[in-house]
Amino acid sequence: MMIYAQPLNEDIRRISEPHMIGYEQPLNEKIRLFMRLELLTGRFLYHISKDPQPEDTVAALHLLLDLYNLSARLDVKSEILKEIDRMGQSARLLMRKEDADATRLDAVLEKLNHHSDVLYQQRGQLGQHLKNHMFFNSLRQRSTLPGGLNGFDIPLFHYWQEQAINVRIDDLNEWIQPYVTANAAARELLNIVRDFGERYEEVAKEGFYQSMMEARKPYQMMRVELPDNVDYYPEISAGKQRFTLRFVNADMLAERGKQNHKDVKFTLVLCSF
């Protein structure tokens, strides 16, 4: 990096200092579930905000179907509530330590209690409100077929597409609401985990790095941070006892990437709460 004799102004700083890309890896199935919920809900909300077009409402329906399928396999709300309880207990245990940041932990407990109260007010399992919904079920039955969501196989879908955009958006907001509530809680849990991360500056010799997991500390998420101006990315393989990173060249997306055999500096963040 260039060294300047005078302090950089913000415009020059943005040009001279690369932004960082964080590659997150869940280390247990519960965190993986929450990250999928976060991803799908975020994409859904993107499509129905800021001047949505007719195609956006169809994309949002596909994402709603994915969310329904996610919640049909697991009791997502129950998993979130269990994790809220566990994190609450962890926060109270941490507060007993002499060096505890009481203000920070109080804020964590307040947020956890809020989301717990909101979720307990939500009746039934996540997705139950769509289980007997005739229009949604007709879409669900056809969604596994390529191009299955169309107006000629499902005339009601064509009728719905012809309604005013604000009518469709109102419908979508109504159908997504329980998922938005659950996602707000799941995102809070994820952000708490992300915030309580231990950062290490590491070097992958010839593009490869391996390390043991600390047995007494069950990590929940790993993040590898790299500058956005490099042409490689990490392939992460993580188990309960150890993890490995292989940095792969990304210059040929159509072919399997080859390992970068140069030493790679990166930031490793191990998160647990």
Q: What is the number of helical segments per DSSP (H or I, 4+ residues)?
A: 8
Spatial strand arrangement across the major sheet? 1-4-7-2
**Percent range for helical residues?**
40-55%
Oligomer: single chain
Query: Distance between the terminal alpha carbons, to the nearest Å?
Result: 35 Å
Instruction: Catalogue the unreliable spans.
Output: 1-16
Describe this structure in words.
With 273 residues, the protein is an alpha+beta fold. Helices cover 48% and strands 18% of the residues. It is built from eight helices and seven strands. It has helices spanning 10-16, 29-47, 54-73, 76-94, 102-120, 134-142, 155-161, 165-195; strands at 20-26, 197-204, 208-212, 221-227, 232-238, 242-249, 264-271. Strands 1-4-7-2 form a four-stranded antiparallel β-sheet. The chain has a three-stranded antiparallel β-sheet with strand order 3-6-5, with no helix packed on it. A hairpin with a 3-residue loop joins strand 5 and strand 6. The protein is globular, with a radius of gyration of 23 Å. The model is unreliable at 1-16 (pLDDT under 50).
